[in-house]
Design a protein that fits this description.
Layout (H helix, E strand, L loop, with lengths): L2 H29 L3 H9 L6 H8 L3 H13 L3 E5 L7 E5 L1 H16 L8 H15 L3
Helix pairs in contact: 1-2, 1-5, 3-4
Length: about 140
């Protein structure tokens, strides 16, 4: 591999992730929640466990639990018994949480750095990134 290509790719990926982070933080500020809460709400598309959420958020379960505690205090989620695992709880959005998640999704989509790409380009980017992060 060409060292210059490697350097350029690393720099571009870093700049892109920074733009995404700024975007998420802007949405969080607009909604009066934290960036971690924005990410958690984005990932809560169906009832899941805290461990599953932590995996989707790419963080430690203890960090996800902290975020969930705040969302629960704000009345945005509930912890309910898991239907098949007596030891686990499922995270479920409340009606307020569903409305907040809809706002999150709308705002994340509205001015996302990805909107500069066509739908085909977005899909290609996703596929390329998936090929890079999946084990060979």
């Amino acid at each position: 591999m060409d060292i210059q290509i490697d350097r350029d790719v690393c720099k571009l990926v870093h700049r892109f992730t920074h733009r995404l982070d700024v975007h998420v933080r802007r949405v969080a500020e607009e909604l009066g929640i934290t960036a971690s809460q924005v990410i958690a709400l984005r990932e809560l598309s169906e009832p899941i466990t805290a461990r599953e959420l932590a995996s989707r958020m790419s963080c430690e379960p203890s960090n996800a639990t902290f975020v969930l505690d705040r969302l629960e205090q704000q009345g945005l989620i509930q912890r309910e018994p898991h239907p098949t695992d007596r030891r686990a709880k499922q995270i479920v959005l409340t009606a307020s949480g569903q409305r907040c998640r809809a706002d999150v999704i709308e705002r994340l989509s509205a001015e996302s750095p990805l909107t500069r790409l066509t739908a085909d380009q977005q899909e290609s980017l996703r596929n390329l990134l998936q090929a890079l992060v999946d084990p060979a």
